């Protein structure tokens, strides 16, 4: 298991946190529409805790889970009121909760080599079992149709070079980072292998797990990138 070491975690927090911040109003609206105005939210792939901070400010309890030790350190510093665990979502026991979120294509990453379509379907059933009736499961995925891309971004004490290469059912992301340490810059590299899922197959697995499913292409005003889809999966209340 690897991914998002100290330098990339720092850069992701400093330069790529807008997705979570701009998605937060739309996500909070989804929770309110479901009648969830408090209780426990499990945030899978919580990253540096930006969404967890928004939740705690609104009075929710938060359990954040991320496979990256560096991300968990940042999240604990940002949101001391929340609880955070370093683990793969596949191996963590989910407590009874009111909502589960996974923002930023968390289920596509293959940091845990066990991650697969079969394991993801099993995990959906675990989420269904952990949610209270009326609870919601909100997440987004990267789909086939990704395009090759090269880009770079820089901040006051960091820079990143980014390359994305589609390969069949996967997207390979290669990143070279530069982070200032004292008067010098430290260079590091990471390669992420991202498994791509079709939205129809994901929706079908959610329904098989017992959810009512709604498909979105934006969290409120925050539109998802091309070839990405979001889901709001609701555990029905007893009739």
Description:
The chain has 239 residues and is α/β, with parallel strands linked by helices. It folds into two domains: 6-143 and 197-234, 3-Layer(aba) Sandwich (Rossmann fold), CATH 3.40.50.150; 149-193, S-adenosyl-L-methionine-dependent methyltransferases (N-terminal domain of TfIIb). Helices cover 28% and strands 37% of the residues. The protein has six helices and 13 strands. The chain has a seven-stranded mixed β-sheet with strand order 3-2-1-4-5-13-10, sandwiched between helices. The longest helix has 16 residues, at 18-33. The termini are far apart.
Q: Numbering strands along the chain, what is their spatial order in the largest sheet?
A: 3-2-1-4-5-13-10
Under CATH, the homologous superfamily of the largest domain reads Vaccinia Virus protein VP39
Number of helices: 6
Helix content: 25-40%
Poorly predicted regions are none
- Multimerization state: single chain
SSE arrangement, N to C: HHEHEHEEHEEEEEHEEEE
CATH architecture of the largest domain: 3-Layer(aba) Sandwich
Structure keywords:
about 240 residues; alpha/beta; Rossmann fold; N-terminal domain of TfIIb; 7-stranded mixed sheet; 4-stranded antiparallel sheet; 6 helices; about 30% helix; globular
